Structure prediction request, 111 residues.
Amino acid sequence: EVQLVESGGGLVQPGGSLRLSCAASGFTLSSYRMSWFRRAPGKEREWVSTIFSDGSTSYADSVKGRFTISRDNAKNTLYLQLNSLKTEDTAIYYCNRISIWGQGTQVTVSS
Prediction:
């Protein structure tokens, strides 16, 4: 069964950091384009970042320079390192492979 399971969310103060994980099962993560999205309260889901099968990456302007997407092929896991967090980064974060979505992990940035 193809499955994505996110973890690593939590409550953090502005300026803080978190690392989100997305464990993949049922397929080889490195063979696919993998992305992170987020949905803030009362807003539409927005794209955050993508890592392509060749390892190249892309970021939304709102997170460029603060967030880093990566993967561990041995663990078949996708990561998103969130640094210099802002209150507007508060959202549920989801990992994605085409039509497959995880359940999401909540990130709350608040003092």
User: Anything to note?
Assistant: The chain has a mean pLDDT of 97. The radius of gyration is 13 Å. Residues 15 and 27 are 35 Å apart (CA to CA). DSSP finds no helices and eleven strands in the chain.
